[in-house]
Design brief:
The structure holds 2 protein chains of 2 kinds. In chain A, about 20% of the residues lie in helices and about 40% in strands. Chain A is α+β, with helices and mostly antiparallel strands. Chain A has a single domain, classed as SH3 type barrels (Roll). A 5-stranded antiparallel sheet of chain A has the order 3-2-1-4-5, with helices on one face. The C terminus of chain A is likely disordered. By secondary structure, chain B is an alpha/beta fold. A 5-stranded parallel sheet of chain B has the order 2-1-7-8-9. Chain B has a 4-stranded parallel sheet with strand order 4-3-5-6, with helices on both faces. A two-stranded antiparallel ribbon of chain B has the order 10-11. The chains are: A alpha+beta, B alpha/beta. Bound molecules: iron/sulfur cluster.
Chain lengths: ~80, ~375
C-alpha cells in the first residue's frame, strides 16, 4: 500500500492527469499538487492514485528499476501496485 | 565503483565503538532493505531494526470488526485497500473473522487501490451506501483528506483509521528503552509532512537521524549519515531524499489534512493508546463520517477485543522489540498464504516482507536483553 511509484504525465484535464510508467497508464489526481502544478511531460511520485511530489526523470528511472526487481522477487504479488 | 559501493566503503572506514542499531519506520524501507540484502553487506556491528512502519498491522482490531459488521449487518458496499481484507479479528471458530470471509459469505466487499476508486464506486451505485475503510499513515491519509475536500457523494462515508508515524517513535523514545541508537525517517511521510517533523529525535533525544528514499543508494547514504553522526558525536537531521522530500513538505497536502481532519489520541492494535497519533474527520464533515452515521457494533462480550490473534507477536515486531523470525509461529503456522497476524498479511508488514524475501530460518524467541 505504501509503495509509491514515479509516473510521467502525458495529459492534464483539470486536476486529472493521464500518467504512464513503463507502458502502464493510470488516471492520477493532481489535487495535492495545487501549490506547484506540474506540466505535461513532468514526472510525479504517485501514491494511491494521487501525485504527492514532482521529481526528475533520472530519479524516476532509477525507481522504476527497483520497482521491477521488487515485482519479480515477491512470492505473492502485491494486491495493488 | 557505483554509488552503493562508495557508501559501503565509507561505512567500513568508520570506527564504530560497538553495536549500533538503526531503526526504520516504513514498510517501504524495510522492503528495499530486505530485498536488496542490505543487512548482509553492512559492517557486522550495525543492526537494522524494522519499527512501526505498517499501518495495517496496527489498525485497531475493533475497527476491522466494525467494518465486517457494516458489510454484513448494515449491508453497505465496503471498500478498503487490498491488504486490509485478510486481516483477522478475534472471534470464535466458525464466525466470520475477516473482510474476505464476509465477502465469501455474500457481503459486498471490494478491494480498491485509491480513494478515487471509492468515489467512483459511490457515484456508480447511487442509493446504495458505500463505506471506505481507510487505514494508513500520513502519506495515505493525505489523499483521503484530498478526496474529502474534493467532495464526496451523499452515499459515501469514511471509516477512518489513519495514523501518524512520529508519535509512535516518540513513545518508544520516551519509554526509556527505545531499542535503537539512530533513526532512518520515512521518505514519503517526510514528502507530505516535511522532514522537519523528525527534528525532535535530534533535539529532544540526541539521536542521529536521516530521512531516506527507497533506492538502496538513498538508504545506504542515510545509514552512512547516521553512523558518521554517531561516531562524531555531532547529531543533526540529515535529508538523503532531497529530490522528493522537500523542505517543509507538500503544503497542499498539509492544508487538506488540516481542513478536513483532526489529530486525536488513537489506539494501536496490541499496543494501546498513543497520544495525538490518529486522524478523525472534523465535525463539519460528520455527514461523511461512518463512525457517526452507523451504529457501533462493538460486542463487549467478545473475547480478546483489540488484541493481536492468539500466539501472534506482531505488536512486538511492530515496535522493533523482536525480529519477525523470532516469533514462534513465523514460517510454521504463519506464512503469507495462511497468515496468523496482520504483519504477515500486509505488504508493509515485516513478517510478510522477510518471508517474501526468502528469510526461512526461525530464530529461537530470545528477546533482546536491553529492552
Ligand atoms: S509471524 Fe505471524 S504470528 Fe508471528 S508475529 Fe508475524 S504475523 Fe504474527
Amino acid at each position: 500500500m505504501c509503495l509509491a511509484i514515479p509516473m510521467q504525465i502525458e495529459a492534464i484535464e483539470g486536476y486529472l492527469a493521464r500518467c504512464q510508467a513503463k507502458g502502464v497508464w493510470r488516471d492520477v489526481s493532481l489535487f495535492m499538487m495545487q501549490d506547484e502544478m506540474p506540466k505535461v511531460g513532468d514526472y510525479v511520485m504517485v501514491h494511491v492514485g494521487y501525485a504527492i511530489q514532482t521529481m526528475t526523470e533520472a530519479e524516476a528511472r532509477s525507481s522504476w528499476e527497483l520497482f521491477d526487481e521488487l515485482l519479480c522477487e515477491t512470492d505473492v504479488p502485491p494486491e495493488h501496485a | 565503483m557505483n554509488e552503493a559501493q562508495v557508501w559501503l566503503e565509507k561505512m567500513r572506514a568508520l570506527e564504530l565503538p560497538g553495536r549500533v542499531k538503526i531503526m526504520n519506520v516504513c514498510g517501504g524501507h524495510e522492503r528495499s532493505i530486505t530485498q536488496a540484502g542490505l543487512r548482509g553487506v553492512l559492517p557486522a556491528n550495525v543492526e537494522l531494526v524494522p519499527g512501526p512502519g505498517c499501518p495495517v498491522c496496527v489498525c485497531p482490531e475493533e475497527d476491522i470488526y466494525q467494518a465486517i459488521q457494516l458489510a454484513l449487518v448494515d449491508k453497505v458496499i465496503l471498500v478498503a485497500f487490498g491488504d486490509m481484507l485478510r486481516v483477522p479479528v478475534n472471534v470464535p471458530k466458525g464466525e466470520i473473522r475477516s473482510l474476505v470471509e464476509a465477502q465469501a459469505a455474500g457481503a459486498d466487499v471490494r478491494p480498491i487501490a485509491s480513494p478515487t476508486e471509492a468515489r467512483k464506486i459511490a457515484l456508480d451505485n447511487p442509493g446504495k451506501p458505500v463505506v471506505f475503510f481507510a487505514a494508513g499513515f500520513e502519506t495515505t491519509t493525505a489523499p483521503v483528506a484530498a478526496a474529502i475536500a474534493e467532495g464526496l457523494s451523499d452515499n459515501l462515508s469514511i471509516l477512518l483509521s489513519g495514523r501518524l508515524t512520529w508519535p509512535a517513535v516518540a513513545m518508544l523514545l520516551d519509554s526509556g528503552t527505545p531499542g535503537f541508537d539512530a533513526l532512518v525517517a520515512p521518505g514519503h511521510v517526510a514528502t507530505i509532512m516535511g522532514p522537519e517533523e523528525w527534528q525532535f529525535v535530534v533535539d529532544r533525544h540526541h539521536l542521529p537521524t536521516a530521512v531516506a528514499g527507497f533506492l538502496p543508494e538513498s538508504l545506504l547514504a542515510a545509514f552512512y549519515s547516521v553512523l558518521r553522526q554517531f561516531v562524531d558525536g555531532k547529531h543533526f537531521l540529515d535529508n538523503c531524499y532531497l529530490e522528493v522530500a522537500h523542505p517543509s513538505g507538500n503544503p497542499t497536502a498539509q492544508r487538506l489534512l488540516a481542513k478536513t481532519l483532526d489529530v486525536v489520541d488513537a489506539n494501536w492494535r496490541g499496543i494501546g493508546i498513543i497520544p495525538n497519533s490518529g486522524y478523525a474527520l472534523k465535525p463539519e464533515y460528520a455527514a461523511w463520517d461512518a463512525r457517526r452515521i452507523y451504529p457501533d457494533h462493538a460486542d463487549p462480550k467478545r473475547r480478546r477485543i483489540g488484541e493481536m490473534p492468539p500466539g501472534c507477536d506482531c505488536a512486538k515486531v511492530v515496535l522493533g522489540k523482536i525480529y519477525p523470525n523470532q516469533c514462534r509461529l513465523y514460517g510454521k503456522a504463519c506464512t503469507p498464504r495462511n497468515p496468523v497476524g496482520p504483519c504477515m498479511v500486509s505488504d508493509e508488514g515485516a513478517c510478510r516482507i522477510w518471508w517474501s524475501s526468502g528469510v526461512r530460518e526461525a530464530e529461537t524467541a530470545t528477546e533482546q536483553p536491553d529492552f
